Amino acid sequence: MASARPSTLGELRVAVAAGRVRRRSVRDEVRENLVARLRAGDTLFPGIIGYDDTVIPQIVNAVLSRHNFILLGLRGQAKSRILRALTGLLDDALPVVPGCEIHDDPLAPLCASCRARVRSEGDSLPLNWLSRDLRYVEKLATPDVTIADMIGDLDPIKAARSGLDLADELTMHYGLVPRSNRGIFAINELPDLAGKIQVGLFNILQEGDVQIKGYPIRLPLDVLMVFSANPEDYTARGKIITPLKDRIGSEIRTHYPATRGDAMAITAQEAWLSRGDVSIPEYVREAVEEVAFQARADQKIDKRSGVSQRLPISLLENVLSNAERRALLAGEPVIVPRMTDIYAALPAITGKFELEYEGELRGADNVAKDIIRGAVGTVFNGYFANADLRQVTEWFDLGGNLQIDDTLPAEELLARACDVQGLRELAMQAGIDRNPPAPLLASAVDFVLEGLYAQKKISRSDEFQYQSAEPPRRPTPRGVQTEPMMERDIPNVAGKKKYYN
């Protein structure tokens, strides 16, 4: 408990000697806490879904090996979340010298000011206890980062205010790496660091020390270094320095969710869906996730950029917002999204991918609409692969048409759809209750119509008017030949060539 923690250096010495407080390096601390969690069967990285058999075992191996490691993956693959979750493997709190910028160990201080305090105050030196969250430092690598930002520099203002010579160790300004001493330091997008900054990391990774601005003193830091990068940049053709790659212990590849179920679980965890009385049909959730899967496989989308898992998260939020807008306008008590709401949520899709040349010619909106149509068709096939669709499609083939849109209230949509033979009965096979409320039944009817359109069994206009997939045949007078004429049916007129249909 916090009350039992030593409050002075003298008490800390006694606690360490008695074994109540352990002194160990950060890598040993993380390793031993990981071992304890594995033995207890605890969840190592809460909130990380889909990596149990791939990424997490590799991270465990890296930590057990006491390695600095890097996560390689495209955007939206939870790299930053994993790095931040490493703090869960640190101790609850760590004793430090009060006010020290580099979180010095009171029993073995590194900086000159802490050594001076220990000499002057002795065992009466008060202690601070640093929580695990404050022992994690993260930096997004950008080309403008300097060596002073990362390692440190001399501070002439500090020297002038304190009346010190610039050669005095007390005039040093510590960078981010020394300030993460006795903790975890993470660099996102490592290859974006300038080359000379990457060179400045060599000693930290290999020997664990830094030298600031030519000072004769070296700081043997205790830091666990972790990184993230895009695989395209982390190559000989990219912007990474090969000797730096050689000094990173483990290289771990992340990936997008392998199954729709994992993807749906991630989206449900991350998306903001608390809007009052909300009922999201399962088929809508599946279609939203399938949009991302279809986009990742589409040849018109750049594979090197990837399609982030943020796409279905933002898309589901936007789909729900369109359904909420409709419910507010219609005065409906329950918010129920429909498949047509996905088309209304194009702004949540088009900004989440980069197009190849063919896609640029097609246009982002048209590419997104094609992807939505493919996603709806795939999900529809999962629900209605064995269903008899003929009664509905024949109604349209006989000249019927149905006009609806994403703003139509549920009751009015159902009233318009009641003339379509078999449509309501087919909608009941979408996994909804036997006596569903009108908004849910309207969503299921919309699902059937969009599914038939996606599978090209019926057609529709951009204004959501559904009609036959085939243009209606013109009525012909009785006895008129309507089939293609064969050669035997064409009279052989003397001197004329034969023409065939």
Number of domains: 2
Category from helices, strands and their pairing: alpha/beta
In percent, how helical is the residue content?
Answer: 40-55%
Average pLDDT reading: 88
* Basic shape: elongated
Number of helices: 22
Low-confidence stretches: 479-501
Q: Calculate the terminal CA-CA distance, rounded to whole Å.
A: 94 Å
Strand content: 5-15%
Number of strands: 14
Would you write up a description of this structure?
The protein is of the alpha/beta class. It folds into 2 domains: 22-93 and 131-253, Rossmann fold, CATH 3.40.50; 260-468, no CATH class. The protein is built from 22 helices and 14 strands. It has helices at 9-18, 26-40, 55-64, 79-85, 112-121, 147-150, 156-162, 176-179, 195-200, 202-206, 242-247, 260-270, 282-297, 310-330, 340-344, 347-350, 357-362, 364-384, 390-397, 410-417, 423-427, 438-454; strands spanning 69-72, 93-96, 128-131, 136-140, 152-154, 172-174, 183-188, 209-211, 218-220, 223-229, 250-253, 402-403, 458-460, 465-468. A 5-stranded parallel beta sheet has the order 4-7-10-1-11. β8 (209-211) and β9 form a beta hairpin. α12 (260-270) packs across α13 (282-297), α18 (364-384) packs across α22 (438-454) and α20 (410-417) packs across α22. Residues 479-501 have low confidence and may be disordered.
Primary descriptors:
501 residues; 22 helices; 5-stranded parallel sheet; Rossmann fold; 2 domains; 3-stranded antiparallel sheet; alpha/beta
